[in-house]
Amino acid sequence: MHTPAWLERLMPHAVRMVDQSLRDLFVSDPDRIGASTLQVGPVHACFARQRIDAAAQAALLDLARERDIKAAFTALHDGAPVNRSEQRPALHVALRSSLGRTAVAKAAHAQARETFHAMGRLVDALRASDVTDLINIGIGGSDLGPRLALDALRDVDAGRFRVHFLSTADGHAVSRLLGELDPAKTAAILVSKSFGTQETLLNGQAVRDWLGADERLYAVTANTDRAAAFGIVPGRTLPMWDWVGGRYSLWSAVGFVVAAALGLDVFERLLAGAAAMDEHVLHAPVESNLAIRHALVAVWNRNAMGHDTHAVLPYDERLARLPAYLQQLVMESLGKSVTQDGRPVGCGTSPVIWGGAGTDVQHSFFQALHQGTDVVPMDFIGTVRVEGGYQDLHRAQMSNLLAQSEAFANGTPSDDPQKAYAGNRPSSVILLDDLSPESLGALLAMYEHSVYAQATIWGINPFDQWGVELGKTLASGLMEALVDPMKAVGDPVTRLLIERIRAGG
Ligand code: F6P
């Protein structure tokens, strides 16, 4: 594999940093903290505990300029066909901002606003009805974003409905859920950009049969014909478009369940938070651009330092679903081996994203992070202010976040090798002023833009996902073979396993 020239240029810095203690960097560079800290709206980010000295930082900023990430952000907002394998723009930014200057971008924003108002009318009618429970049926980007947003924000508004999610096709999940609900007081939203996803259609059929009536069924899709064929009553389907990727679609009518449960105003505030981050990312210079700085740290850890995985560690139970959301956003976007023009990318791309909410994870996998053989870079995420009682419990969360980040960075020596902490384990700390619709929107938009900046450095397409298609195609053929002995599909291993499944174990 041919190593890209930009990575060759970073390597002398990496070699220098291997033996450099983080502790000493603070002594030798008094400006380090100021130069490694950014505040953008409600988001405070501290990269001072990354193994990057001033010279390495300068090299990374040069890389961002050389790869012209700022121009890439302009192209994104203007609706250039940045998704080259599908020859289309990726205009998720137009769902929340009107920063694009072209007719394409303006038209996308107008369509988004029109749909937002149509969604508002459906939300009003639903909230005025006697429905008590909503089921969101969707998977991947049609599930993870709404789930995260509702979990994070449900304290902002008491929540008009009890909300449930069906994602994977699993009979136990369906029967457990439907067993708890009253079909006369339940509405369901089928969310599927393609309206062709097996899990969503199977779950949708099960729920439609159980509801026994179509008037409480809604759809969000880019394939309105398929939704109509499924039996969604006209006027209850909200559109999305091929220029919005599933994992970037929370801001579209995919957020219907969020708007219905928490109110259209809360959803609008989420969009406003993301729009403020869009504006920052589009206009801020490279060195003070939060998404670019975050992306440069990610590329440094992945390529210069050679770390294969990255942990996302929210110290706020309301953000417990953030690691799962970022798994799709980062790994489906950046899990590519070839560049946009089809050549081998020449270096590592997506790290494995994993994580979980502190402090639970301190008592499960942190031992390996502190003393294991592999170094795992981390994003710690916390909330400065929380409302209501139990402030002492919040202080416990914060003190643990601070303690862990410090312990990972500095370590502590011991004469007993079992008790020594090597330290030098890199982490970033991201603090939200509070957890509001605006700050959540800004945080998620920051991650989206960081992913795009990383993809720009690697020259890959973060907006397609061809790698998931093969398994989907095979699964649809195998579904029939599981019940029909005449269907001989699959390789010898699959056929053997099919026989075992058909035989009933
Ligand atoms: O996992 C592949 C994928 O296409 C994701 O990109 C998408 O979010 C998910 O499936 C669901 O797709 P759809 O919204 O079309 O049902």
Describe this structure in words.
This protein is an alpha/beta fold. It is built from 19 helices and eleven strands. The chain has a six-stranded mixed β-sheet with strand order 1-2-11-10-8-9, sandwiched between helices. The longest helix is centred in the first third of the chain and has 26 residues, at 103-128. The protein starts with a helix and ends with a helix. Bound molecules: 6-O-phosphono-beta-D-fructofuranose.
**What's the CATH superfamily of the largest domain, by name?**
Glucose-6-phosphate isomerase like protein, domain 1
For the record, the CATH class of the largest domain is Alpha Beta
User: Helicity range of the residues?
Assistant: 40-55%
- Which spans of ≥5 residues are poorly predicted at pLDDT below 50? none
Write out the distinct hetero groups bound to the structure. 6-O-phosphono-beta-D-fructofuranose
Task: Break the fold down into its secondary structure elements and pairings.
Elements: H1 5-18, H2 22-28, H3 32-35, E1 37-40, E2 43-46, H4 54-66, H5 69-78, H6 103-128, E3 133-137, H7 144-153, E4 162-166, H8 171-180, E5 186-191, H9 198-211, E6 217-221, H10 224-230, E7 237-239, H11 256-262, H12 264-283, H13 290-304, E8 309-314, H14 322-334, E9 352-355, H15 366-371, E10 378-385, H16 391-410, E11 427-434, H17 437-458, H18 469-481, H19 492-502
Parallel strand pairs: 3-4, 3-5, 5-6, 6-7, 8-9, 8-10, 10-11
Antiparallel strand pairs: 1-2, 2-11
Helix pairs in contact: 1-4, 6-11, 7-11, 11-12, 12-17, 13-17, 14-17
The protein binds 6-O-phosphono-beta-D-fructofuranose (F6P).
